[in-house]
Amino acid sequence: MGKVLIIGCGGVASVAIHKCCQNSEVFEEVCIASRTVSKCEALKEKLEKTTKTKITTAQVNADHVEELIALIEREKPDVVLNLALPYQDLTIMDACLATKVHYVDTANYEPEDTAKFEYKWQWAYRERFEKAGITALLGSGFDPGVTSVFSAYALKHYFDEINYIDILDCNAGDHGYPFATNFNPEINIREVSAKGSYWEDGRWVETEPMEIKRVYDFPQIGEKDMYLLHHEEIESLALNIPGIKRIRFFMTFGQSYLTHLKCLENVGMTSIEPIMFEGKEIVPLQFLKAVLPDPSSLGPRTKGKTNIGCIFVGKKDGKEKKLYIYNVCDHESCYKEVGSQAVAYTTGVPAMIGAMMLMTGTWKKAGVYNIEEFDPDPFMDALNQWGLPWIVDENPKLVD
Ligand code: NDP
């Protein structure tokens, strides 16, 4: 069918690349390009004996549009899948525009120095993508991504109107370290130490970090503490789900994680303000990242499951209706299959599926779109086929 250029070769990219290689009919060629090309080469060497997909590698600094344009012109991919960091979204979108190639990512743009993620920067590209006749598919991970597709699917098949969405992200994995993050520590800590917020009655309601706590009994896992966070899919779902009154996002955290985080915050280690250290400017959070366990090293140690999904409350045929759609993923099974734990797996699989939707022309609309703006059905089928089967519960316990 075609060729994908994957930018980044970290935890999420590694899973997406494994999955593209399992799906050789669609992904005949994969070019893996990242800043550290040795990581791309190591993955190529591991995978090329196991797949019909042709794998090539390249070095690129995705902060530089000219380098990206030269790479895209040389490799001639049908789709660029951005699995580097949110800081690179705009430069990669610029390069896709210049070369007229479809764009897919899993996280919205965030300027490196402000820790504020919003869609406004990427939505500003709408007209230019439309004119160029190419698609930018935003947020094709799990959350955002699958949770947004679950919302579109619930609206299409179960509701006339959805009024309340609670997105619940539970990771009950245990890696045995007192403190580690399951994906890029810098991105993860920026997210969880920020103020929380939710959408209610047409406006944002802001909370202190971790101010709102609930306990939920997760299917196949059990009771866990979860905390309200700001999360990027709320912003687009608030616009794309008609009749919505409230959207909240909760993530589970264990007490040990929170105690360590509080301590690191209190001593200034999570700050993104540069400081001078021995004559050199360093960012405390980036230094912290360097001393924490590399998320990719957690794979072989992590046991337990994740459960991520959405609880919907709305109306069908004039009656109130509730619905819970979720996926349960097992860390050890993921590791056995692709050598990564479930957090990278649950993001890498939908990233591959999003690229497949554009590659096959299943989703075809020129412009910049969030994932819930497309027909959810082929994506939902692909989740079942490619390792993230989902469950529908029509009588869930609600979060108060
Ligand atoms: P990692 O830190 O493991 O990997 C990031 C990769 O990007 C590395 O290979 C890194 O290269 C590369 N990279 C960083 N900067 C550049 C650059 N300037 N040019 C080229 N390559 C670069 O991150 P993850 O795999 O954990 O996360 C990847 C993305 O997925 C992030 O945007 C994250 O926010 C998103 N994500 C989305 C989720 C969702 O559900 N939607 C969930 C989890 C993550 P190098 O090795 O040289 O540093």
Any chance you could write out the topology, listing elements then pairs?
Elements: E1 2-7, H1 11-22, E2 27-34, H2 37-47, E3 54-59, H3 65-75, E4 79-82, H4 89-99, E5 102-105, H5 120-123, H6 126-132, E6 135-138, H7 146-157, E7 161-171, H8 185-192, E8 196-200, E9 203-207, E10 213-218, E11 222-228, H9 232-240, E12 246-252, H10 255-266, E13 275-277, E14 280-282, H11 284-291, E15 305-316, E16 319-330, H12 331-338, H13 342-359, E17 367-370, H14 376-385, E18 390-393
Parallel strand pairs: 1-2, 1-4, 2-3, 4-5, 5-6, 6-17, 7-12
Antiparallel strand pairs: 7-15, 8-9, 8-12, 10-11, 11-12, 13-14, 15-16, 16-18
Helix pairs in contact: 1-13, 3-4, 7-14, 13-14
The structure holds NADPH dihydro-nicotinamide-adenine-dinucleotide phosphate (NDP).
NADPH dihydro-nicotinamide-adenine-dinucleotide phosphate is lined by residues 7-13, 34-36, 39, 60-63, 83-86, 88, 106-107, 141-145, 183-184, 187, 295, 347.
What does this structure look like?
This protein is an alpha/beta fold. The chain folds into 2 domains: about 1-140, NAD(P)-binding Rossmann-like Domain (Rossmann fold); about 145-340, Dihydrodipicolinate Reductase, domain 2 (2-Layer Sandwich), CATH 3.30.360. The protein is built from 14 helices and 18 strands. The chain has helices spanning about 10-20, 35-45, 65-75, 90-100, 120-125, 125-130, 145-155, 185-190, 230-240, 255-265, 285-290, 330-340, 340-360, 375-385; strands spanning about 1-5, 25-35, 55-60, 80, 100-105, 135-140, 160-170, 195-200, 205, 215-220, 220-230, 245-250, 275, 280, 305-315, 320-330, 365-370, 390-395. Strands 7, 8, 9, 10, 11, 12, 15, 16 and 18 form a 9-stranded mixed beta sheet that branches. A 7-stranded parallel beta sheet has the order 3-2-1-4-5-6-17, sandwiched between helices. Strands 13-14 form a two-stranded antiparallel ribbon. The longest helix is centred in the last third of the chain and has 18 residues, at about 340-360. Bound molecules: NADPH dihydro-nicotinamide-adenine-dinucleotide phosphate. NADPH dihydro-nicotinamide-adenine-dinucleotide phosphate (NDP) binds next to helix 1. NADPH dihydro-nicotinamide-adenine-dinucleotide phosphate (NDP) binds near residues 13, 60, 62, 63 and 85.
